[in-house]
Write a structure and sequence with these properties.
about 425 residues; alpha/beta; SH3 type barrels; TIM Barrel; three-stranded antiparallel sheet; 16 strands; about 15% strand
Length: about 425
């Protein structure tokens, strides 16, 4: 690693990436681990050399597979769609009319070309790296009453809260036993976890040498600042929809403007920001989805996070029709065209909609996955939507299935020690 001011340059098999120096004591020539553009920790030489030896041949073999699968094949399609995709290839911005035309595509051969172009764009801009974060759901209490969510305040579900020590214990297992290098700490909007508790949790986990995401909803700006100072470096905070009327109807007692203002604020603090929306909300149009994508980009999102509406039983939206899988895959592809360098998440909700779509999403332009590391006794209670794809999965088996999938399509997991 080379250092200039507070920016380091990391060399990984000849590839050079800029990272923000977030670790005291790191110096030029050190082996380091970085994630999300942030240096997380230095790595002892012996450990680093063992890891590099493991990856040396596999790294280049995976790149070959990814390059092969990222090719765009000739396909019979309309001149109008070809013209739009040519703009993508020339790195020109798509208009709203272009995006609307892509959403209207239904022919299999045209969809295939759209997804191949998105995957090719992902490969050109991001190479074959794929984020694999662990997510720990530490409380299903929530003060909100969102119309689609299974842990909403008025739901009559069994509630749980992990103690601070339980959270630390499970985080330590995820890091030391399972090898995760990035953890998402997620809960409902539960104010029982006040500033003091959250700062303690973050400080103790940060000492494990991992990137910490927090996903705790709309809390005070001061709390987010304190948690950043304690060592959290990423926030998952979705705005759900850019349509204010839909937002206010589905999220009573909350403010769209305040939500957007908070996302902008955490970005200004230096957090890596993951944000996005729900696909398939009642009353939503393709134009709303396009505005959602553009808003996500305008907020400076480092990661796009969106998934299909899967309303929970007993909620006002429980009888809503589920969105078409292709609608979500097109949203991944169009998001890739709009924000070429971003990380785009294949959510568990998408996998729940259709168990095959984890791979399909990755081949439509996505390059990030989350694996649930919540203990089974709590995971079955965190029912934000029903029949979750990860509900009954053994964690270690889930990790193996995920890494096997990534290897099969030439992707290199970047956040899990193997």
């Amino acid at each position: 690693m080379k250092i200039e001011d507070n920016i380091g340059t990391v060399d990984y098999f000849g590839e050079h990436r800029k990272v923000f120096m977030d670790t005291d004591g790191a110096k030029e020539g050190d082996y380091v681990y970085a994630q999300g553009g942030v240096l997380i920790r230095t790595v002892p030489e012996k450990e680093a050399l063992e890891t590099l030896e493991f990856w040396k041949e596999r790294f280049f073999e995976l790149k070959k597979v990814d390059a092969r699968l990222s090719k765009v094949h000739d396909s019979q399609t309309s001149n109008a769609i070809l013209a739009i995709l040519q703009k993508v290839n020339l790195k020109r911005a798509l208009t709203k009319e272009d995006m609307s035309a892509l959403y209207k595509v239904t022919k299999p051969e045209e969809l295939k070309l759209i997804y191949e172009t998105a995957n090719s764009t992902r490969q050109k801009e991001n190479d074959n790296a794929c984020c694999v974060h662990g997510i720990l759901e530490f409380s299903n209490h929530c003060r909100n009453d969102c119309s689609y969510c299974g842990i909403r305040k008025s739901s009559s579900i069994k509630r749980y809260r992990m103690t601070v020590d339980e959270i630390i214990k499970n985080a330590e297992y995820a890091v030391k036993e399972l090898g995760f290098k990035a953890l998402v700490l997620q809960s409902g909007e539960d104010t029982w976890y006040d500033e003091k508790k959250l700062v303690e949790i973050v400080r103790r986990i940060r000492k494990m040498g991992v990137l910490i995401f927090i996903s705790i909803g709309a809390r005070s700006k001061e709390l987010y600042r304190k948690v950043y100072e304690a060592g959290a470096r990423a926030v998952l905070l979705r705005f759900e929809t850019s349509n204010r009327e839909i937002f206010e109807n589905l999220r009573p007692g909350t403010s769209f403007e305040e939500r957007i203002d908070l996302i902008k604020y955490v970005k200004s603090l230096g957090y890596v920001v993951a944000t996005g929306f729900i696909v398939g909300l009642p009353g939503e149009t393709d134009n709303d989805l396009i505005n959602n994508i553009l808003l996500t980009k305008s907020l400076g999102a480092d990661m796009h996070s969106f998934g299909p509406l899967i309303p929970a039983e007993g909620t006002p939206l429980e009888d809503e029709r589920l969105p078409d899988k292709q609608k979500v895959l097109k949203t991944i592809a169009i998001s890739r065209f709009a924000d070429r360098e971003a990380k785009i998440l294949v959510t568990t909700a998408l996998e729940t909609l259709d168990r095959k779509t984890r791979k399909e999403g990755l081949l439509a332009g996505a390059n990030s996955i989350m694996i649930n590391v919540t203990p089974p006794e709590y995971r079955e209670l965190y029912i934000i939507y029903p029949n979750r794809a990860d509900k009954d999965k053994d964690i270690k088996e889930n990790i193996k299935q995920t890494t096997d999938l990534l290897y099969s399509i030439g992707r290199a997991p970047t956040d899990i020690g193997l």
